[in-house]
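Retro notes
What went well: the complex prediction finally ran end to end.
Inputs used:
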Amino acid sequence: MKRSVFYVSDRTGITAEMLGQSLITQFDSFQFQRYTLPFIDSPERAQEAIAAINLAARTDGQRPLVFSTLINESVRRTLRTAEALVLDFFEVFIAPLESELGAPSSHAVGKSHGTGDLHTYTQRMNAINFSMAHDDGAAGKGLSEAEIILVGVSRCGKTPTSLYLAMQFGIKAANYPLIPEDLDKQQLPSALLAWRKKLWGLSIRPERLHQIRSERRPDSSYASLANCRHEIQAAEAMMRAHGIPFLESTNMSIEELSTTILHQTGLARHLY
Amino acid sequence: MKRSVFYVSDRTGITAEMLGQSLITQFDSFQFQRYTLPFIDSPERAQEAIAAINLAARTDGQRPLVFSTLINESVRRTLRTAEALVLDFFEVFIAPLESELGAPSSHAVGKSHGTGDLHTYTQRMNAINFSMAHDDGAAGKGLSEAEIILVGVSRCGKTPTSLYLAMQFGIKAANYPLIPEDLDKQQLPSALLAWRKKLWGLSIRPERLHQIRSERRPDSSYASLANCRHEIQAAEAMMRAHGIPFLESTNMSIEELSTTILHQTGLARHLY
C-alpha cells in the first residue's frame, strides 16, 4: 500500500524527518512516498504546503501523513486544515513542558541546530578537520591528539564513522587501515603501537565486504569473497591478540556504530 | 534555573536527543544538564536508567525531564515509574498512526537509521568519499562528477557543509576555495570555469570570520579584521559578477546551511 508522507517545518525539517522516519519504519507493509517542505514560516507558505498535500491526497485517493515541527501557532492552525493526518510535534509536547517548568516557551523558531557559541563551533570544526586530516592512515604524526583511532580492513566503514563522530559529537576521531601486509605479519602498523589504548576496531561480514568492494572494483582479487574472508579472519585474530575491542558493522548504520562506540568507550562528547 | 534532562532510547538515542533539543531550546531561562542513555532495551536496563534519573531528581531537588523513544511497551511502562516528567514519543504518535493506517505497528526496535539496501548504502559512501576527495580544491579533475561545488573564502564553512550534504543527503558535494589571488584578479579559479552552473557560494560576516581565523592563527594578517573585510567584500563582488548565488553562513548551523542549499538549488536528495 502506498501513502504520501510530508515533513513540514518552519526551519530545516531535519527534526520532522527524523521523527517521521522513526515512526513510519514501524509500518512495514506500506510504501511511503516522502516529501520535505522546509521553511514553512508564514500562513502564506502554509497555504502552499497545503496545496501540495491536498494534491497528493487527491492523486493517492488517501489522506497523506504530515509530520510537522511548527513553532508558530497560526502556521500550525493553517496547516491543520489540510486533507491529511497532521501530527505536530510541538503541539503535543510544549504544553506539558510549560506546565512542568512553570514557564512559557519562547516560541522562537529555529533554535534546535543552533550555531552555538564560538567555542562549541570551533570544537566541532576542529574535530571535523582533524578527522579529515587523519583519514585512512594519513598524517600518522598527529595521532597523539586523536581521542579515538578506528582500525580495520579497507571498506569496513572507518571513514564515515570517524566523520560522524566528529560532526555529531565533536570527537577527534582518526582512522587507520589494516592492510594485507600487517595482516600477514599479524603485526599492528608501527604508527599505532604508541596508541593501543585509543584503538577501536571495526569488522564486517565477508559477504557484505565482498559486495561493497565489488561495487568499487568488480571481479578484482581485492573484492573476491575468498580474499575478504581471509582479511577479516586475520584482522579479527590480530585485534583479539592485541586486546583491541571491535564491533561488527554489517547491520549497523553509521549513526548506530558511532553511538555504540561513544557508549562503549565512555568517551566524553563535546557537543549536544 | 537548572534542570536535568535525560534522553532515553532502546537504540542510539539520536532521535530522542534531536526531539528533546528542539523542545528545551524553547525554554531560554533554564540551564539544562543533559544525559543520553542509549540501548535501554530491557526492563533491567530501564531500572538502571531509573536509578540514574532518580539520583538526579534527589540531587537537583527537582524532577528531571525525560525524552524517550522506546518501542517496547514494558520498557516504557517501567521507565514511567521514574521520578520525572517522562515524554515518550512513540507512546504519543503510534496510536493515531495505527488508526489512520488501519494496521498495527511492527514494534521492531531500531529501524530508524537503517543501513538500507546495498544501493543506498553505496550511494551514501560514494558521496562521502567524493566529498572528502574533492575538499578544498583537491582533485580538480573530478569536478565533472560533482552535483554541487561550494565556493568561498578560507574558513567560511565549505568543508563541513559539503560533508553534511554527502552524509545526510547522499549528494556529491565538492568545495573549492577563493584565494586572495583569485579575489585580487576578480577571476574565478580556472578549474571552475567549466562548472559555473554547479557553483554555490558561502559568505560570512567579517567579524565572525576574524574570530574563527583567530582561533587558528591568532594575530596573523590572514586573521585580521581588515583582511577578512577585504576578502569577503571581494568574494561577494566576484560571486555577484559571475551570477553565483550565495548564502551568508554566519548565524546558520551546518544543518541549516545544507538544507537551505538543497532547498534553493532544487538538487534531488539520494537518501532519506
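What we learned: The CA atoms of residues 43 and 74 of chain B lie 7 Å apart.
What to try next: split runs per interface for comparison.
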